[in-house]
Amino acid sequence: MSQTQSAPPTGNAGQMGIDNIQETAMNVIYTVSGIVTMPVEILLRLQFGTTYFPAPNLFLSAIMLILVSALFGIATAMTQMIPFVRVSGPAGMFGMGSFTSLFFIAGAVHGFRTWRRMIHMELEENSTFEGPALFFFALLPKGSSFWFVRIVYEPAFVFAVAIVLGNLLIIQFPLVLYLQFAALFLAMKQYIAWYRTWAFIRHLMDTTNVGPIIAKIVNGTATENELARVHLASLPTNLPPDMRRATVAHIARAFSAPMPEEAK
Predict the structure, then answer these.
(1) Average pLDDT of 230-247?
(2) Fewer beta carbons under 10 A from the terminal one: N or C of the chain?
(3) Going by C-beta distance under 8 Å and a sequence separation of 6 or more, which residues neighbour residue 146?
């Protein structure tokens, strides 16, 4: 067993386990949110990159819309079959079926655009970029803030459009409900994307700030307050040099900045 493996565990070991659980939860939420919001995002993001959406998203989003449309259609048909009960269908001109058709049309248009960029890769600088926001968001307060527009304005716009079009009887209630849920999922998806970027930068800063403390641990001059910052009790004065080096290596590894993972 190597010296680093035999080092005594610190409080960061439990924190790393919590971080793994958090990362797994964020991956699940981000993936599900991407499937739910893709039909809305391709209408909001007219210039998204070729790899912004994972390859399976188009299929999974299409299946989701078809199933939701079928479920609402079956529910409406079953309520109309109840004897002596008169139940009218959803009020509005366009429903989930119409939105599903719009999704397929938009997918075909975007598919031709992205296919052209895939063949001629020199036409695209960054394939992971979701593209600029719609032009009118720039006219709003803080409209120049990339993340504020993505996390606040775009979900609020989708939510408001759903309410307005529903009240005007332009879209039916099932579609209103879907758009409202999509707005919430869109806000959560963009928040996770922002949080990952912030956490990576914050971890880099933490790594820089903890460097002098690690140097003091090596020299045996670290104070109790400095040791507390790295969740470590004071080291014995008679600790063998190899154990001290292993402890320092363990702390340095715990505070090392992980490579950022691309959200899929």
Answers:
(1) 67
(2) N
(3) none
CA 7 to chain centre: 35
In 3D space, the residue among 258, 247, 199, 240 whose CA is nearest the CA of residue 3 turns out to be 247
Six-digit token pair at 139? 């006219």
Burial class (CB in 10 A: 0-12, 13-18, 19+), 62: middle
Q: How far apart are CA 176 and CA 158, in angstroms?
A: 10
Tell me the two tokens of residue 153. Answer: 């304005």
Please report, for residues 12, 122, 138, 257, the alpha-carbon distance to residue 33 in angstroms, rounded to integers and kept in the order given. Answer: 30, 30, 25, 27
pLDDT digits (tens, 9 = 90+) for 58-76: 999 999 999 998 887 777 6
Alpha-carbon distance 31 to 25, whole Å?
10
Q: For 86-133, write each residue's pLDDT tens digit.
A: 655 567 788 888 999 999 999 999 999 999 999 999 989 889 999 899
CA angle 168, 172, 174 (to 5 degrees): 140
Rounded distance between C-alpha atoms, residue 30 and residue 195, angstroms: 12
> Dmax of the chain from CA atoms?
89
DSSP structure class, residue 152: I
Phi, psi of 159 (to 5 degrees): -65, -45
CB 182 within 8 A of CB 32: no
- Rounded to 10 degrees, what is the CA torsion of 12, 13, 16, 17? -140
Which pair of structure tokens corresponds to residue 261? 């993972």
Tokens describing residue 250:
């363990």
